[in-house]
Amino acid sequence: MRMYDIILKKRQGQALTTEEINYFVDGFTKGEIPDYQTSALLMTIFFSKMNHRETVDLTKAMINSGDVMNLSGIKGVVVDKHSTGGVGDTTTLILGPMVAACGIPMAKMSGRGLGHTGGTIDKLESINGFNTQMTKEEFIYKVNKIGIAIAGQTSNLAPADKQLYALRDVTATVDNLSLIASSVMSKKLASGAQGILLDVKTGHGAFMKTQEDSFELAQMMIDIGNAMGRNVSAIITDMNQPLGRAVGNSLEVKEAIDTLRGNGPEDLYKLCLALGTELLILAGYTNSPDKALQILQKKVEGGEAFEKFRDLVKSQGGSIEQVDNTELLPQGKYKVNLLSDKNQYIKSIKAEEVGLAALTLGAGRQTKESKIDLGVGIYLHKKVGDFTNKGELIATIYANDEEKSKLALNQLSSCYEYSLKPVEEKKLIYGIINKDGTQLIK
């Protein structure tokens, strides 16, 4: 078998066999197939696309390139959630404790961020001492003991995906649905959870800009999961403005804690309830969305979800003092306010640009080697549809560098569009795809 023939075959629009896909992934992972041939194949896949069977085969090959977690030692139906990324996306820190408080084991393997803000692991490291590095045995023990653990992904979990993504990133071949779907699902399936919920973002601040592409990607990932014997559902959610009000690592941790205490932003709490409802159904806890919703609300209102977050932090060596008093979390020493220049409604907030302003402050990574500043970020006092009086506070920038704060203020001010007329409230959830089919939310 030759890589040249595989590239030519795909360039001619033909489907690759299972053996050809395995040969390519195995050879590339071992360093036997050079980057230039891999890049050529990725580009032909980008234009010629892959069918369902090819996409499943590619996912399987990437899973088999490294370790596969066996979570059979965890009691109950293990669930996991994956978001396709956005701005102010703090759902894992709220959702995990909520679901675990219901007795559903949440075994979450997360990564670090590369982009405008940190990943879940970076956010949790805003809490002094929080440790996400553990052995498989420790991971399983913690989930069995308190119902939840959040660990960093091991370097040998779907290593082929990591290597392929690095190449896709520099060859303009990232945004192909089959390549995206296989990338996401290879990591999730290798992580071992029996029930997987996908939070597929759509809109200006999301990777998928249109609802059509987001629904198509969601269905493709569900089909991959189902083909491999897993129970997978997806919720299509809005990312035309940041989720919640906080953008930045410690700010998002504080917002997550506030939400678990019942004082968080309405949109963030509402989305976590919707995600939690679907997770409870995936785990077989109940078949009734209304019942699941009521149970989750009680877990928050009764303080059990917040206590489960405290258990999580304590279990993984984090500072309980910072959880109980969030003012002790890292915070930028400079505060710069964005004020309204007239009486007006906020028509739109460009989510991606807000994220880039946070990146300027140091809340994210420009490269893999970049060091994140955990205390910087942006807090949005006003969201789309809100009315602002002249001189009223719209957003606050938290910074540790005055020059960066000035640059971020200019970026942030250009993120807003205004209207003199009332603005219609934006939809938060567009649809749910599960075993019962696709349900569009009106």
Automatic annotation (TrEMBL):
EC number: 2.4.2.2
Domain Pyrimidine nucleoside phosphorylase C-terminal: 345-419
Keyword Transferase carried by entry: yes
Gene Ontology CC terms: cytosol
Entry's Gene Ontology BP terms: pyrimidine nucleobase metabolic process; pyrimidine nucleoside metabolic process
Enzyme class: transferase
Cofactor: K(+)
Xref: InterPro entries: Glycosyl_Trfase_fam3, Glycosyl_Trfase_fam3_N_dom, Glycosyl_Trfase_fam3_N_dom_sf, Nuc_phospho_transferase, PYNP-like_C_sf, PYNP_C, Pyrmidine_PPas_bac/euk, Pyrmidine_PPase_CS
Pfam families, A to Z: Glycos_trans_3N, Glycos_transf_3, PYNP_C
Role according to the record: Catalyzes phosphorolysis of the pyrimidine nucleosides uridine, thymidine and 2'-deoxyuridine with the formation of the corresponding pyrimidine base and ribose-1-phosphate.
NCBIfam families: PRK05820.1, PRK06078.1, Y_phosphoryl
Subunit record text: Homodimer.
UniProt record similarity statement: Belongs to the thymidine/pyrimidine-nucleoside phosphorylase family.
Protein name: Pyrimidine-nucleoside phosphorylase
Classification of source organism: Bacteria, Bacillati, Bacillota, Clostridia, Eubacteriales
